[in-house]
Amino acid sequence: MIQFSVIIPTFNRGALLREVVYALTHQESPGCDYEIVPVDNASTDNTRAVVEEMSTASPIPIRYQYEPKPGSHYARNTGFKSANGEILGLIDDDVVVDSSWVRQMTQPYEDPKVSCVGGRIILRWINGEPQEFLASYREILGEINYGPQFKELTFPVSVNAGNLSIRREMLMGVGGYNPCSAPGDLRLVGDGEVGLCNKVYASGGRIFWNPAAIGWHVQDASRIGFRYLRNRMRINGQSDAAAAYRLRRADKLQVLTHFAKAGVKLGLYSIDSPLQPTEQLVDYMLRRDRQCNYVTYIARILTDARLRRLIEKDNWLDV
Question: What does pTM read for this prediction?
C-alpha cells in the first residue's frame, strides 16, 4: 500500500489551518496510509496549539514540524525531509481539499511512469464577493484548471504548489523546492513551483494533471483589490524572470538577447497606453507592472553576483 505524506507550510493562519487539517482527516476511502505534516514557519499566533489539539483527536497521524527561517520554500523542504511517505503531497495553508483528494492524489502513482501530479484549484470567497473586474484575473489569484480530463502535461506547463504531489525519490533527486519569495536573502524571488516542474522535466520525469484532485483556495474578498493584484503581478514578473534566467543560464548571450527583447516589449507597453475605458487601463497597468518587474529583476540577476548564485542554486534541501 502506498505511503503518503501531506506537507502544509503555514504562517499565522491558525484558524484556517484547523479547517484545512480537518478536511484531510475526513477523507472518503483514501486507499493508502497517510500522515499530515504541518510545518510552522515561525508563526506568532496559535498555530502550534491548533495542530497539537487536532493531533490528539485525529485517527490520522499529524506531526507538527517547526521551521524558523522565514520563507515558504524553507518550510516546504523541511516538511519533505521529515516526511515518511514515498509519495509527498503539498498544499497551502489556505487550501481546503475535497473529500476524495488523498485517493485522487495517490492512485495515479500505481503507474510507474508518473513522477508528479497536479490538481485543480478553485477559488472560494469569504467575507463577501470580489469586485467584478477580478473575474478576469482568477489565475493570478491562484485558480488553476487544465481541463476535465486526466492527462500528461508537457514542458513548459507547470502545476501549482497549492495542490500537487510528487514521488519522494524524484523530489530528492532534483534538489527540493526552489524559493518563491523570501524576506532577507537579498529580497530573493525565485521560480518556485515552475522551477520544481522544470527540474522534473529536465530529469526525464513526467507530470500529470488530475482534475478530480480538487482543492478550494480560500480568498478573503475584503482584502483583494487592485493594489493586491499589482503586488501579485510584481512578484509574478520577478518569478518569471528567475525562471527565464535559469532556463538560459548556460548561454549568457541568450540571456542578454532575451533581456533586450523584454526591454523592447516594456517600451512598447509604454507607447501603447490606453486612456480609457477603465477595464482596459487596469489590464494595461497590471501587464506593464509584470513586464517592468520582469525586466528590472533580470537586470538585478545579471548585475548582482550574490543574487545570481541564489537563483542558480539547484539543491535547496541542504540549506
Answer: 0.92
Cis peptide before 156 (omega within 30 of 0): yes
Domain that includes residue 235, residue range: 226-312
- Whether 147 and 211 have beta carbons less than 8 Å apart is answered as yes
Quick: pLDDT tens for 144-185. 999 999 999 999 999 999 999 999 999 999 999 999 887 766
Chosen domain end from 177, 203, 220: 220
| 264 and 141 belong to one structural domain | no
Asked if 204 and 306 sit in the same domain, the reply is no
Task: Kindly give, in sequence order, each residue whose CB lies less than 8 Å from that of residue 38, ignoring residues fewer than 6 positions away.
Answer: 8, 10, 17, 21, 47, 51, 62, 64, 65, 93
Span 35-76, pLDDT tens digits: 999 999 999 999 999 999 999 999 999 999 999 999 999 999
21 and 117 within one domain: yes
Report if residue 272 sits inside a domain: yes
Rounded Cα gap, residues 204 and 152, in angstroms: 13
CA distance 183 to 205: 31
Contact 253, 309 (CB under 8 A): no
